[in-house]
Design brief:
Shape: globular
Structural class: alpha/beta
Distance between the termini: 26 Å
Oligomer: single chain
Strand order of the largest sheet: 2-1-3-11
Radius of gyration: 23 Å
Largest sheet: 4 strands, mixed
Strand content: 5-15%
Length: about 525
Protein backbone atom coordinates (compact mmCIF):
# COMPACT_ATOMS: atom_id res chain seq x y z
CA UNK A 1 0.00 0.00 0.00
CA UNK A 2 -0.51 3.01 0.58
CA UNK A 3 2.04 6.02 0.44
CA UNK A 4 -1.13 4.29 1.21
CA UNK A 5 -0.99 7.28 2.45
CA UNK A 6 -3.64 5.13 0.75
CA UNK A 7 -5.76 8.38 1.07
CA UNK A 8 -3.68 11.68 1.72
CA UNK A 9 -5.47 10.92 3.43
CA UNK A 10 -3.15 7.73 2.77
CA UNK A 11 -0.37 8.41 3.28
CA UNK A 12 -0.28 11.45 5.12
CA UNK A 13 -1.93 9.87 3.38
CA UNK A 14 -4.14 11.26 4.04
CA UNK A 15 -4.59 16.33 6.08
CA UNK A 16 -7.33 18.79 6.49
CA UNK A 17 -9.16 21.03 9.02
CA UNK A 18 -11.39 19.09 11.38
CA UNK A 19 -14.80 20.24 10.24
CA UNK A 20 -17.62 17.89 10.97
CA UNK A 21 -19.78 19.70 8.46
CA UNK A 22 -17.44 18.31 5.80
CA UNK A 23 -19.38 15.11 6.26
CA UNK A 24 -22.27 16.95 4.64
CA UNK A 25 -25.70 15.61 5.41
CA UNK A 26 -24.36 12.19 6.24
CA UNK A 27 -24.75 12.71 9.94
CA UNK A 28 -21.16 11.87 10.84
CA UNK A 29 -20.05 12.64 14.38
CA UNK A 30 -17.40 11.73 16.88
CA UNK A 31 -19.88 10.39 19.40
CA UNK A 32 -19.00 7.79 21.97
CA UNK A 33 -19.37 4.16 20.90
CA UNK A 34 -22.69 2.49 21.54
CA UNK A 35 -22.82 -0.12 24.32
CA UNK A 36 -21.16 -3.30 23.16
CA UNK A 37 -23.13 -6.46 22.56
CA UNK A 38 -22.08 -10.03 23.08
CA UNK A 39 -18.63 -10.94 21.72
CA UNK A 40 -18.43 -12.37 18.22
CA UNK A 41 -18.21 -16.16 18.27
CA UNK A 42 -15.37 -15.99 15.78
CA UNK A 43 -13.41 -13.91 18.25
CA UNK A 44 -12.60 -16.94 20.34
CA UNK A 45 -15.02 -16.08 23.12
CA UNK A 46 -13.13 -12.98 24.33
CA UNK A 47 -15.30 -11.38 26.96
CA UNK A 48 -15.36 -7.58 27.17
CA UNK A 49 -12.60 -6.27 29.39
CA UNK A 50 -13.37 -5.36 32.95
CA UNK A 51 -11.86 -2.33 34.69
CA UNK A 52 -8.36 -3.13 35.90
CA UNK A 53 -7.93 -6.03 33.49
CA UNK A 54 -6.68 -4.04 30.53
CA UNK A 55 -3.23 -5.09 29.33
CA UNK A 56 -0.98 -2.55 27.62
CA UNK A 57 1.20 -3.82 24.79
CA UNK A 58 3.75 -1.82 22.88
CA UNK A 59 3.34 -1.50 19.08
CA UNK A 60 5.88 -0.20 16.59
CA UNK A 61 4.43 0.94 13.24
CA UNK A 62 7.08 0.73 10.54
CA UNK A 63 5.68 3.55 8.36
CA UNK A 64 6.89 7.09 8.97
CA UNK A 65 3.91 8.54 7.05
CA UNK A 66 1.30 6.84 9.27
CA UNK A 67 -1.55 9.27 9.96
CA UNK A 68 -2.52 7.98 13.44
CA UNK A 69 0.02 7.86 16.23
CA UNK A 70 -1.98 7.26 19.41
CA UNK A 71 -4.34 4.53 20.60
CA UNK A 72 -7.38 6.74 21.08
CA UNK A 73 -10.82 7.41 19.66
CA UNK A 74 -14.03 5.35 19.61
CA UNK A 75 -12.63 2.51 17.49
CA UNK A 76 -9.57 2.00 19.67
CA UNK A 77 -11.73 2.24 22.78
CA UNK A 78 -14.14 -0.38 21.46
CA UNK A 79 -11.31 -2.75 20.49
CA UNK A 80 -9.90 -2.43 24.02
CA UNK A 81 -13.34 -3.09 25.48
CA UNK A 82 -13.67 -6.24 23.37
CA UNK A 83 -10.15 -7.61 23.83
CA UNK A 84 -8.78 -6.20 27.06
CA UNK A 85 -5.78 -4.85 25.14
CA UNK A 86 -4.66 -1.27 24.64
CA UNK A 87 -1.60 -0.28 22.66
CA UNK A 88 1.27 2.06 23.37
CA UNK A 89 2.10 3.20 19.86
CA UNK A 90 5.38 4.34 18.35
CA UNK A 91 5.53 5.35 14.67
CA UNK A 92 8.83 5.07 12.81
CA UNK A 93 10.80 8.21 12.15
CA UNK A 94 12.32 6.70 8.99
CA UNK A 95 12.83 3.37 7.22
CA UNK A 96 16.13 2.72 8.99
CA UNK A 97 14.69 2.60 12.50
CA UNK A 98 13.23 -0.91 12.51
CA UNK A 99 16.30 -2.59 10.97
CA UNK A 100 18.40 -0.97 13.70
CA UNK A 101 15.97 -2.22 16.35
CA UNK A 102 16.17 -5.73 14.91
CA UNK A 103 19.97 -5.62 14.90
CA UNK A 104 20.09 -4.45 18.51
CA UNK A 105 17.37 -6.81 19.71
CA UNK A 106 15.43 -3.85 21.10
CA UNK A 107 11.97 -4.84 19.91
CA UNK A 108 8.49 -4.02 21.29
CA UNK A 109 5.66 -6.48 21.93
CA UNK A 110 4.20 -6.05 18.43
CA UNK A 111 5.56 -4.80 15.11
CA UNK A 112 3.42 -3.74 12.16
CA UNK A 113 5.46 -3.62 8.94
CA UNK A 114 5.37 -4.08 5.19
CA UNK A 115 9.02 -3.75 4.25
CA UNK A 116 10.54 -6.00 6.91
CA UNK A 117 8.20 -8.99 6.77
CA UNK A 118 10.87 -11.41 5.55
CA UNK A 119 13.32 -10.26 8.18
CA UNK A 120 10.88 -10.62 11.07
CA UNK A 121 9.59 -14.00 9.85
CA UNK A 122 12.31 -15.64 11.88
CA UNK A 123 11.90 -17.91 14.91
CA UNK A 124 14.73 -16.05 16.64
CA UNK A 125 12.82 -12.77 16.47
CA UNK A 126 9.12 -13.63 16.40
CA UNK A 127 6.65 -16.21 17.61
CA UNK A 128 5.08 -18.22 14.82
CA UNK A 129 1.33 -17.86 14.62
CA UNK A 130 1.10 -21.65 14.23
CA UNK A 131 2.37 -22.32 17.73
CA UNK A 132 0.42 -19.51 19.38
CA UNK A 133 -2.85 -20.49 17.69
CA UNK A 134 -2.38 -24.13 18.64
CA UNK A 135 -1.58 -23.25 22.25
CA UNK A 136 -3.87 -20.32 22.97
CA UNK A 137 -6.48 -19.92 20.22
CA UNK A 138 -7.30 -23.26 18.58
CA UNK A 139 -10.56 -21.89 17.17
CA UNK A 140 -8.73 -19.09 15.29
CA UNK A 141 -9.23 -20.25 11.70
CA UNK A 142 -7.19 -18.81 8.82
CA UNK A 143 -7.83 -19.91 5.25
CA UNK A 144 -5.34 -22.12 3.42
CA UNK A 145 -4.44 -19.53 0.78
CA UNK A 146 -3.29 -16.98 3.34
CA UNK A 147 -1.38 -19.62 5.28
CA UNK A 148 0.32 -20.83 2.08
CA UNK A 149 1.30 -17.31 1.10
CA UNK A 150 2.90 -16.58 4.46
CA UNK A 151 4.51 -19.94 5.25
CA UNK A 152 8.29 -19.69 5.38
CA UNK A 153 10.88 -22.34 4.57
CA UNK A 154 10.71 -23.59 8.17
CA UNK A 155 7.05 -24.53 7.67
CA UNK A 156 5.75 -21.78 9.95
CA UNK A 157 3.99 -18.48 9.35
CA UNK A 158 4.69 -15.45 11.48
CA UNK A 159 2.09 -12.99 10.25
CA UNK A 160 -0.81 -12.52 7.84
CA UNK A 161 -0.83 -9.34 5.80
CA UNK A 162 -3.88 -7.09 5.71
CA UNK A 163 -5.46 -5.77 2.49
CA UNK A 164 -5.24 -9.12 0.68
CA UNK A 165 -8.10 -10.73 -1.23
CA UNK A 166 -8.21 -13.45 -3.85
CA UNK A 167 -9.75 -12.86 -7.27
CA UNK A 168 -12.61 -15.14 -6.28
CA UNK A 169 -13.27 -13.20 -3.07
CA UNK A 170 -13.37 -9.93 -4.95
CA UNK A 171 -15.55 -11.38 -7.70
CA UNK A 172 -18.07 -12.55 -5.11
CA UNK A 173 -18.16 -9.16 -3.41
CA UNK A 174 -19.96 -6.73 -5.69
CA UNK A 175 -19.38 -3.76 -3.41
CA UNK A 176 -15.73 -4.38 -2.64
CA UNK A 177 -13.85 -2.12 -5.01
CA UNK A 178 -10.31 -2.08 -3.68
CA UNK A 179 -8.52 0.44 -1.54
CA UNK A 180 -7.70 4.10 -1.95
CA UNK A 181 -4.19 2.92 -2.78
CA UNK A 182 -4.91 2.93 -6.51
CA UNK A 183 -3.64 5.57 -8.93
CA UNK A 184 -5.73 8.40 -10.27
CA UNK A 185 -5.49 11.87 -11.80
CA UNK A 186 -7.81 14.79 -11.05
CA UNK A 187 -8.21 17.91 -13.21
CA UNK A 188 -9.63 21.39 -12.64
CA UNK A 189 -13.27 21.54 -13.75
CA UNK A 190 -13.38 25.32 -14.14
CA UNK A 191 -10.33 25.41 -16.40
CA UNK A 192 -11.68 22.59 -18.54
CA UNK A 193 -14.86 24.63 -18.99
CA UNK A 194 -12.85 27.72 -19.96
CA UNK A 195 -11.04 25.60 -22.53
CA UNK A 196 -14.36 24.57 -24.07
CA UNK A 197 -14.71 21.22 -22.26
CA UNK A 198 -12.44 19.29 -24.61
CA UNK A 199 -13.00 15.51 -24.29
CA UNK A 200 -10.47 13.45 -22.38
CA UNK A 201 -11.05 9.85 -23.42
CA UNK A 202 -7.50 8.85 -24.39
CA UNK A 203 -3.95 9.62 -23.31
CA UNK A 204 -3.53 11.71 -26.44
CA UNK A 205 -6.58 13.75 -25.43
CA UNK A 206 -5.08 14.35 -22.01
CA UNK A 207 -1.72 15.43 -23.42
CA UNK A 208 -3.50 17.79 -25.83
CA UNK A 209 -5.35 19.42 -22.93
CA UNK A 210 -2.09 19.81 -20.98
CA UNK A 211 -0.75 21.71 -23.99
CA UNK A 212 -3.80 23.95 -24.02
CA UNK A 213 -3.33 24.69 -20.33
CA UNK A 214 0.34 25.52 -20.79
CA UNK A 215 -0.48 27.93 -23.60
CA UNK A 216 -3.43 29.71 -21.97
CA UNK A 217 -2.18 29.62 -18.34
CA UNK A 218 1.62 29.83 -18.58
CA UNK A 219 1.95 30.51 -14.85
CA UNK A 220 0.23 27.25 -13.97
CA UNK A 221 1.84 23.80 -13.70
CA UNK A 222 -0.07 21.56 -16.14
CA UNK A 223 0.50 18.38 -14.09
CA UNK A 224 1.79 18.02 -10.54
CA UNK A 225 2.52 14.52 -9.25
CA UNK A 226 2.67 13.11 -5.75
CA UNK A 227 6.27 12.08 -5.22
CA UNK A 228 5.31 8.48 -4.40
CA UNK A 229 2.79 8.13 -7.24
CA UNK A 230 4.69 9.38 -10.26
CA UNK A 231 4.52 6.27 -12.45
CA UNK A 232 1.50 4.23 -11.38
CA UNK A 233 -1.32 5.80 -13.41
CA UNK A 234 0.62 5.91 -16.65
CA UNK A 235 2.11 2.44 -16.25
CA UNK A 236 -1.45 1.12 -16.10
CA UNK A 237 -2.40 2.93 -19.31
CA UNK A 238 0.46 1.29 -21.18
CA UNK A 239 -0.64 -2.12 -19.96
CA UNK A 240 2.50 -2.87 -18.02
CA UNK A 241 1.95 -5.51 -15.40
CA UNK A 242 3.99 -4.17 -12.51
CA UNK A 243 5.81 -1.23 -11.01
CA UNK A 244 9.44 -0.64 -11.87
CA UNK A 245 10.82 -2.94 -9.18
CA UNK A 246 8.48 -5.90 -9.68
CA UNK A 247 8.06 -9.01 -11.81
CA UNK A 248 5.75 -9.70 -14.72
CA UNK A 249 4.70 -12.97 -16.28
CA UNK A 250 4.47 -13.80 -19.96
CA UNK A 251 3.91 -17.25 -21.47
CA UNK A 252 4.53 -18.93 -18.14
CA UNK A 253 7.87 -17.23 -17.46
CA UNK A 254 8.72 -14.19 -15.40
CA UNK A 255 10.91 -11.20 -16.18
CA UNK A 256 12.00 -8.15 -14.24
CA UNK A 257 9.83 -5.07 -14.79
CA UNK A 258 12.15 -2.92 -16.89
CA UNK A 259 12.39 -5.67 -19.52
CA UNK A 260 8.70 -5.43 -20.35
CA UNK A 261 8.11 -4.79 -24.08
CA UNK A 262 6.00 -1.68 -23.41
CA UNK A 263 8.32 -0.19 -20.81
CA UNK A 264 10.29 1.87 -23.32
CA UNK A 265 7.05 3.38 -24.65
CA UNK A 266 6.16 4.38 -21.10
CA UNK A 267 9.54 6.04 -20.54
CA UNK A 268 9.35 7.92 -23.84
CA UNK A 269 5.89 9.18 -22.88
CA UNK A 270 7.07 10.42 -19.49
CA UNK A 271 10.05 12.09 -21.09
CA UNK A 272 7.77 13.84 -23.58
CA UNK A 273 5.74 15.29 -20.70
CA UNK A 274 8.91 16.83 -19.33
CA UNK A 275 10.28 18.08 -22.65
CA UNK A 276 6.96 19.75 -23.45
CA UNK A 277 6.94 21.54 -20.10
CA UNK A 278 3.92 19.71 -18.71
CA UNK A 279 5.69 18.44 -15.58
CA UNK A 280 8.42 20.02 -13.44
CA UNK A 281 11.95 18.66 -13.10
CA UNK A 282 11.76 19.42 -9.37
CA UNK A 283 8.71 17.16 -9.10
CA UNK A 284 11.16 14.25 -8.95
CA UNK A 285 12.89 15.68 -5.89
CA UNK A 286 10.03 17.01 -3.76
CA UNK A 287 10.98 17.12 -0.10
CA UNK A 288 7.69 15.66 1.15
CA UNK A 289 4.35 14.33 0.02
CA UNK A 290 2.42 17.49 0.89
CA UNK A 291 3.93 19.81 -1.70
CA UNK A 292 1.89 18.41 -4.59
CA UNK A 293 -1.28 18.90 -2.51
CA UNK A 294 -0.35 22.53 -1.95
CA UNK A 295 0.12 23.09 -5.68
CA UNK A 296 -3.27 21.56 -6.43
CA UNK A 297 -5.43 23.01 -3.66
CA UNK A 298 -3.64 26.35 -3.84
CA UNK A 299 -4.63 26.85 -7.48
CA UNK A 300 -1.14 26.42 -8.91
CA UNK A 301 -1.74 23.24 -10.93
CA UNK A 302 -4.32 22.05 -13.46
CA UNK A 303 -3.94 18.28 -12.99
CA UNK A 304 -3.00 16.41 -9.82
CA UNK A 305 -1.70 12.85 -9.99
CA UNK A 306 -2.04 10.77 -6.84
CA UNK A 307 -4.76 8.21 -5.97
CA UNK A 308 -8.39 7.56 -6.88
CA UNK A 309 -9.33 9.75 -3.89
CA UNK A 310 -7.51 12.80 -5.23
CA UNK A 311 -10.53 14.80 -6.42
CA UNK A 312 -12.59 14.05 -3.31
CA UNK A 313 -9.82 14.90 -0.85
CA UNK A 314 -8.62 17.96 -2.78
CA UNK A 315 -12.16 19.32 -2.95
CA UNK A 316 -12.63 18.94 0.80
CA UNK A 317 -9.45 20.96 1.39
CA UNK A 318 -10.40 23.59 -1.17
CA UNK A 319 -13.83 24.01 0.41
CA UNK A 320 -12.39 24.32 3.90
CA UNK A 321 -10.06 27.05 2.58
CA UNK A 322 -12.99 28.89 0.96
CA UNK A 323 -11.70 28.13 -2.53
CA UNK A 324 -13.89 28.67 -5.58
CA UNK A 325 -12.82 25.80 -7.84
CA UNK A 326 -13.00 22.03 -7.82
CA UNK A 327 -11.40 18.93 -9.29
CA UNK A 328 -12.87 15.93 -11.08
CA UNK A 329 -11.28 12.57 -11.75
CA UNK A 330 -10.06 11.55 -15.16
CA UNK A 331 -11.32 8.15 -16.32
CA UNK A 332 -9.24 5.35 -14.82
CA UNK A 333 -8.89 3.87 -18.30
CA UNK A 334 -7.53 6.07 -21.09
CA UNK A 335 -6.12 3.34 -23.32
CA UNK A 336 -7.26 0.13 -24.99
CA UNK A 337 -4.12 -1.44 -23.53
CA UNK A 338 -4.95 -0.42 -19.94
CA UNK A 339 -4.42 -3.19 -17.46
CA UNK A 340 -3.94 -3.51 -13.74
CA UNK A 341 -2.29 -6.69 -12.49
CA UNK A 342 -2.61 -7.30 -8.77
CA UNK A 343 0.31 -9.42 -7.65
CA UNK A 344 0.20 -8.14 -4.12
CA UNK A 345 0.01 -10.39 -1.10
CA UNK A 346 -1.40 -7.61 1.02
CA UNK A 347 0.12 -4.54 2.63
CA UNK A 348 1.45 -4.96 6.17
CA UNK A 349 1.52 -7.69 8.77
CA UNK A 350 1.68 -7.77 12.56
CA UNK A 351 4.42 -9.70 14.33
CA UNK A 352 4.39 -10.95 17.91
CA UNK A 353 8.02 -10.59 18.86
CA UNK A 354 9.99 -12.79 21.22
CA UNK A 355 10.15 -9.74 23.50
CA UNK A 356 6.36 -9.85 23.84
CA UNK A 357 5.23 -9.83 27.48
CA UNK A 358 1.90 -11.58 26.80
CA UNK A 359 1.79 -13.76 23.65
CA UNK A 360 -1.58 -15.22 24.65
CA UNK A 361 -3.27 -11.82 24.88
CA UNK A 362 -1.56 -10.81 21.63
CA UNK A 363 -2.77 -13.71 19.50
CA UNK A 364 -6.29 -13.41 20.94
CA UNK A 365 -6.19 -9.68 20.19
CA UNK A 366 -5.38 -10.46 16.56
CA UNK A 367 -8.03 -13.17 16.51
CA UNK A 368 -10.67 -10.61 17.43
CA UNK A 369 -9.46 -8.23 14.71
CA UNK A 370 -9.70 -11.13 12.24
CA UNK A 371 -13.34 -11.82 13.13
CA UNK A 372 -16.16 -10.39 11.03
CA UNK A 373 -17.07 -8.06 13.90
CA UNK A 374 -13.46 -6.99 14.37
CA UNK A 375 -12.82 -6.34 10.69
CA UNK A 376 -15.91 -4.19 10.33
CA UNK A 377 -15.21 -2.28 13.55
CA UNK A 378 -11.65 -1.55 12.48
CA UNK A 379 -12.42 -0.58 8.92
CA UNK A 380 -15.83 1.14 9.14
CA UNK A 381 -16.04 2.42 12.71
CA UNK A 382 -18.58 1.67 15.44
CA UNK A 383 -21.76 0.11 14.08
CA UNK A 384 -24.80 2.29 14.66
CA UNK A 385 -22.62 5.32 15.33
CA UNK A 386 -20.51 5.52 12.18
CA UNK A 387 -22.35 3.12 9.86
CA UNK A 388 -25.25 0.74 9.43
CA UNK A 389 -25.41 -2.44 7.34
CA UNK A 390 -27.38 -2.22 4.10
CA UNK A 391 -29.45 -5.29 3.24
CA UNK A 392 -27.85 -5.18 -0.19
CA UNK A 393 -24.56 -6.26 1.34
CA UNK A 394 -22.53 -3.13 2.08
CA UNK A 395 -22.12 -0.52 4.82
CA UNK A 396 -23.99 2.78 4.65
CA UNK A 397 -21.65 5.39 6.10
CA UNK A 398 -22.69 8.32 8.26
CA UNK A 399 -19.49 10.14 7.32
CA UNK A 400 -17.39 10.72 4.24
CA UNK A 401 -14.65 8.05 4.16
CA UNK A 402 -12.48 10.47 2.16
CA UNK A 403 -12.56 13.02 5.00
CA UNK A 404 -9.12 12.23 6.41
CA UNK A 405 -9.50 14.38 9.51
CA UNK A 406 -12.73 12.65 10.52
CA UNK A 407 -11.41 9.18 9.73
CA UNK A 408 -8.12 9.70 11.55
CA UNK A 409 -9.55 11.46 14.61
CA UNK A 410 -12.03 8.62 15.13
CA UNK A 411 -9.41 5.94 14.68
CA UNK A 412 -11.17 4.42 11.68
CA UNK A 413 -9.26 2.10 9.30
CA UNK A 414 -5.72 2.51 10.55
CA UNK A 415 -5.82 -0.12 13.29
CA UNK A 416 -6.14 -2.80 10.60
CA UNK A 417 -3.43 -4.90 12.18
CA UNK A 418 -5.41 -7.81 10.77
CA UNK A 419 -7.98 -7.24 8.04
CA UNK A 420 -8.64 -8.25 4.45
CA UNK A 421 -9.01 -6.70 1.03
CA UNK A 422 -12.73 -7.46 0.81
CA UNK A 423 -13.63 -5.51 3.95
CA UNK A 424 -11.21 -2.71 3.12
CA UNK A 425 -12.56 -2.60 -0.43
CA UNK A 426 -16.07 -1.86 0.89
CA UNK A 427 -14.79 1.33 2.50
CA UNK A 428 -14.54 2.65 -1.04
CA UNK A 429 -18.17 2.01 -1.95
CA UNK A 430 -19.71 5.42 -1.47
CA UNK A 431 -21.85 6.03 -4.55
CA UNK A 432 -21.74 9.82 -4.35
CA UNK A 433 -17.91 9.94 -4.35
CA UNK A 434 -15.82 10.20 -7.50
CA UNK A 435 -13.45 7.65 -6.03
CA UNK A 436 -16.15 4.99 -6.28
CA UNK A 437 -16.52 5.40 -10.03
CA UNK A 438 -12.75 5.39 -10.51
CA UNK A 439 -12.40 2.13 -8.59
CA UNK A 440 -15.27 0.51 -10.49
CA UNK A 441 -13.45 1.29 -13.73
CA UNK A 442 -10.22 -0.18 -12.37
CA UNK A 443 -11.98 -3.31 -11.10
CA UNK A 444 -13.15 -4.00 -14.65
CA UNK A 445 -9.56 -4.23 -15.95
CA UNK A 446 -7.84 -5.76 -12.91
CA UNK A 447 -6.26 -9.21 -13.13
CA UNK A 448 -5.08 -11.08 -10.04
CA UNK A 449 -1.75 -12.89 -10.06
CA UNK A 450 -0.79 -13.25 -6.38
CA UNK A 451 1.63 -16.03 -7.27
CA UNK A 452 3.96 -13.33 -8.63
CA UNK A 453 4.02 -11.81 -5.17
CA UNK A 454 5.62 -14.97 -3.82
CA UNK A 455 8.82 -14.25 -5.72
CA UNK A 456 10.50 -12.83 -2.65
CA UNK A 457 14.20 -12.71 -1.98
CA UNK A 458 15.30 -13.91 1.43
CA UNK A 459 17.21 -11.67 3.87
CA UNK A 460 21.00 -11.72 3.44
CA UNK A 461 20.73 -13.91 0.30
CA UNK A 462 22.70 -13.33 -2.90
CA UNK A 463 19.43 -12.73 -4.75
CA UNK A 464 18.45 -10.10 -2.19
CA UNK A 465 21.77 -8.33 -2.70
CA UNK A 466 21.42 -8.35 -6.49
CA UNK A 467 17.82 -7.16 -6.48
CA UNK A 468 18.51 -4.41 -3.95
CA UNK A 469 21.35 -3.12 -6.14
CA UNK A 470 19.21 -3.25 -9.29
CA UNK A 471 16.24 -1.58 -7.61
CA UNK A 472 18.45 1.23 -6.31
CA UNK A 473 20.08 1.65 -9.70
CA UNK A 474 16.69 1.87 -11.43
CA UNK A 475 15.50 4.40 -8.85
CA UNK A 476 18.42 6.66 -9.72
CA UNK A 477 18.61 6.06 -13.47
CA UNK A 478 14.90 6.43 -14.26
CA UNK A 479 15.05 10.14 -13.46
CA UNK A 480 17.75 10.55 -16.12
CA UNK A 481 15.32 9.06 -18.63
CA UNK A 482 12.45 11.29 -17.53
CA UNK A 483 14.59 14.42 -17.74
CA UNK A 484 16.50 13.61 -20.94
CA UNK A 485 16.77 16.54 -23.35
CA UNK A 486 15.62 14.52 -26.37
CA UNK A 487 13.80 11.29 -27.12
CA UNK A 488 17.04 9.83 -28.47
CA UNK A 489 18.76 10.64 -25.19
CA UNK A 490 15.88 9.06 -23.27
CA UNK A 491 16.16 5.85 -25.29
CA UNK A 492 19.94 5.78 -24.75
CA UNK A 493 19.45 6.27 -21.00
CA UNK A 494 16.92 3.43 -20.93
CA UNK A 495 19.26 1.11 -22.79
CA UNK A 496 22.05 2.07 -20.40
CA UNK A 497 19.79 1.21 -17.46
CA UNK A 498 19.18 -2.25 -18.93
CA UNK A 499 22.91 -2.72 -19.48
CA UNK A 500 23.64 -1.72 -15.87
CA UNK A 501 21.06 -4.22 -14.64
CA UNK A 502 22.66 -6.99 -16.68
CA UNK A 503 26.07 -6.12 -15.30
CA UNK A 504 24.76 -6.25 -11.73
CA UNK A 505 23.41 -9.76 -12.31
CA UNK A 506 19.89 -9.45 -13.71
CA UNK A 507 19.99 -12.70 -15.66
CA UNK A 508 21.08 -14.68 -12.61
CA UNK A 509 18.30 -13.04 -10.61
CA UNK A 510 15.76 -13.81 -13.34
CA UNK A 511 16.78 -17.48 -13.46
CA UNK A 512 16.28 -17.72 -9.71
CA UNK A 513 12.92 -15.91 -9.97
CA UNK A 514 11.65 -18.36 -12.57
CA UNK A 515 12.66 -21.36 -10.50
CA UNK A 516 10.91 -19.83 -7.47
CA UNK A 517 7.82 -18.94 -9.50
CA UNK A 518 7.38 -22.44 -10.90
CA UNK A 519 7.51 -23.84 -7.38
CA UNK A 520 5.35 -21.26 -5.65
CA UNK A 521 2.56 -21.12 -8.21
CA UNK A 522 1.71 -24.71 -7.34
CA UNK A 523 0.27 -23.36 -4.09
CA UNK A 524 -2.58 -21.81 -6.06
CA UNK A 525 -3.70 -24.97 -7.88
Amino acid sequence: MNKSRSFKIVAAALSMAVVLSACGGNGGNTGQPAPSGSPDAAAGGNAPAKPGQVKELSLFIDASWYPVTEWKGPVADMITEKTGVKLKVTVATDDKQLPLMIASGDLPDLVFTSSNIDRLSDSKLSYSWNELIEKYAPDFKIDKTRIAIHTMDDGKFYTVRNSFATQEEMKNSKYSLGSDGNPGIAVREDILKELGNPPIKTLDDFVKVLGMVKEKYPEMVPLIMDKDWIEQYFLAQFGTETLLDGWYEQDGKVEYAIRQPKMLDFFKFMNSLYRNGYILAENFALANDQIDDQYATGGKAFAHSHTVSTADTDNIKIKSNQGNFSFKMLPSVLSKDAKVVSSGLGFSGTFITKKNKDPEASIKFLQYLASDEGKKLTMFGVEGVHWTWNEGGHPDFKYNPSDADFVNSNGIKWWYLYNDGVTEGMLSYVPELQKTQALMELKAVRIYKPELGLIQTQPDSQEKTIKTKIDEMVKNEKVKIYLAESEEAAVAAYENMLKNAENIGLQKLTDWANATYQKKKELFK
